[in-house]
Amino acid sequence: MILQKSIPHNPLESVKLPGIKPLDLADWLPVDDAFSGQMAQRDALLSERRDQVLMMDQSAKEAAQELLQLVLAHRYEAAQEQVTRPDGVVISIDWQDPLATLGLIAQEDFCILQRPEGSPEHVLTGAVLCFPASWTLSEKFMRPLIGIHDRIDSYDEGIAARVQRLFDGVQVGRPLWRFNALWYQSPELFAPRSINDPRDHSHGQNAPYMRSEQQVILRLPQTRAVVFSIHTYMVHMEDVMRQWGR
Questions:
Q1: Across 115-134, average pLDDT
Q2: Is the overall model pTM greater than 0.90, yes or no?
Q3: Across the chain, which distance is largest between two alpha carbons, in Å?
């Protein structure tokens, strides 16, 4: 099992959707106590199931390269050829395969969303998604925001309009963040589920694991694409209650 011992935000807090807050850029891309375990699983997924966890339209390549440059500057002193991860693993930087490189150097999953000319919404044009929580990248790739969330009951037209305004309005250097939280029966991080599968019963109030994603929205300065990054926390109920229970 790959678990953290704590979560930096209170996952038991009730927050009205979409629950967006400003984020200090210095707090983006944290390294936590599950880094080594999560990165080992990411390494394996990108090696063995790349077609399931990475998709990129050619239109997103420039944005993906810009994102890679930003992550390297933020985390690895702007290295250009190779980096040594906090777990000691050396990763070569492949500028022609930027999303795969991102998947190997950071705990976060990254989604790139761009708003094509004439489109009313941003579209998911690229992603490295090693830790999906009950959704499947292939079913969301190249779909607009409303299509990405079309099976989420709480994502109604009002929420959709507010989220699109957030994606339109997020400013360079001023990222935004939110979190979600669900109790899960299994601590498995790679948990895809097709929209055609039976209704998900993998979580519930009495389940032993809390899965909470720190989701960050930021705008890239050159391509103006929006990045949606996901840092996944999986924590045993006992540790959640020890930290945040009352």
A1: 94
A2: yes
A3: 50
